[in-house]
Design brief:
single chain, 411 residues, alpha+beta, four-stranded mixed beta sheet, 9 helices, 13 strands, 49% helix, 16% strand
């Protein structure tokens, strides 16, 4: 809505005064001629009208209560810009109950730029808002996808430390879930590739020594005692074979999800078998086995428990001096069977206790054995135990020796 321009309001009021002058002279012909001239000149509807309220019953009409009666809009009122037709304007006479009624001429109607304004409001503004919303939505969707594409390219070039989630802030939508899944995948693949590279490097180092001894034995076979060389060749071949088999097993456990048949296992029977085998293989050592009458573990698997416990026992015997004692103790504690395997070796520095379960972990002078490292026995033990929800840790004894603790849940 908008007011009529001041000069146009003055013109309307002037027409009203002129019409009132002719009306008061009671010269109807002159008044009619003037109205016809004004109608042709302004090309609009024009008339003079009056009304009279007729009291029929009840209290006398009070103008303050009933209000004023109008044929059209006052020249002081605002005009609706969006109506198609021009409004009827009323200019009341001052000395009589009559008014000049005229349709507002086109040139007097306010809002010269209404068509342009209407186009801006109904077309341009919605399109601008839609375009702005589209750009915001595009950036909201495309930006994380571009980050994901960039991270994928970096990952394909071997950058396994790349992550996408840190660029998405506090987003909680499907793209954030996708970025989280991608980061988890990258971290897992990077870890697997890193482990495989480290395993290959460690394995190549471990194989170098027995292969060198094997080459020497073969090269000098015809010059030295044949029986000794055959024993040396056989021993080195077995050592190489075991390293390769353990490496393949470790790589398979790291890359595949182990699916085991759930079964009940009696730890006492399992330990009896493993200890008998160990006594046969290490007759120069003492093995002490302390267990309850039975120890049933449900929802477990002997194919995972047996190699894990056997590797720990063999590791303890390997580092215990000849005639030394290896103690195996099985107890029950708060929903877990606790298996403690204690040797009489030189122990491990405290800062390395967690690292002995890594493949081919080496110590400079902490332990002395036939090989240069711990090999894969404890690393394989940890992987196997994890498949049945068991845990393993190591502690040093105060009087030398290492205690490996395996905690196996009841079920």
């Amino acid at each position: 809505m908008s007011f009529i321009a001041e000069q146009h309001r003055n013109q309307l009021n002037a027409w009203g005064r002129q019409a009132e002058t002719l009306y008061l002279k009671e010269n109807k012909a002159a008044l009619q001629a003037w109205l016809e001239t004004l109608k042709r000149q302004e090309k609009t509807y024009v008339s003079i009208a009056s009304f009279e309220a007729l009291h029929i019953a009840g209290d006398t009409l009070d103008k303050n209560i009933v209000g004023a009666y109008h044929f059209g809009r006052s020249v002081e009122w605002k005009i609706h810009l969006y109506f198609d037709e021009n409004p009827i304007m009323e200019v009341p006479f001052t000395q009589t109950n009559a008014s000049l009624v005229i349709r507002l001429p086109d040139y007097m109607r306010p809002g010269s730029y209404w068509i342009t304004t209407k186009f801006l409001l109904q077309v341009i503004t919605p399109m601008a808002l839609l375009l702005l919303l589209s750009i915001m939505l595009y950036r909201h969707i495309i930006t994380p996808l571009q980050q994901l594409e960039k991270a994928t390219s970096e990952f394909s070039r071997g950058n396994f430390s790349v992550r996408v989630g840190k660029y998405l802030g506090r987003r909680k939508d499907e793209l954030a879930d996708l970025a989280k899944t991608f980061d988890t995948m990258v971290a897992r693949i990077g870890e697997l590739i890193g482990n495989q590279r480290q395993l290959i490097a460690d394995l190549s180092h471990e194989l170098r020594t027995p292969l060198t001894r094997l080459d020497i034995a073969v090269a000098n076979f015809e010059y030295l005692d044949a029986s000794d060389h055959l024993a040396r060749i056989e021993r080195e071949s077995k050592h190489i074979r075991k390293l390769v088999e353990d490496s393949l097993t470790l790589a398979w456990l790291d890359n595949e999800k182990l699916i085991l048949q759930q079964e009940s296992v009696d730890l006492v029977d399992l330990l009896d078998v493993l200890v008998d085998d160990a006594r046969f293989e290490f007759p120069e050592h003492q093995l002490e086995l302390i267990t309850p009458n039975n120890a049933i573990v449900h929802n477990s698997n002997h194919r995972a428990l047996a190699p894990a416990i056997e590797n720990v026992i063999r590791n303890a015997l390997r580092y215990t001096p000849s005639r030394g004692l290896v103690q195996i103790l099985l107890t029950l504690n708060d929903g877990y069977y606790v298996l403690e395997i204690t040797d009489q070796g030189p122990g491990i520095p405290e800062q390395y206790l967690e690292k002995i379960f890594e493949p081919f972990f080496r110590l400079d002078k902490a332990r002395i054995a036939n090989g240069d490292s711990f090999g894969l026995g404890l690393a394989l033990a940890k992987r196997h135990l994890a498949s049945v929800r068991a845990t393993i840790q190591a502690k040093n004894k105060p009087d030398n020796g290492l205690k490996v603790i395996i905690m196996i849940p009841f079920e």
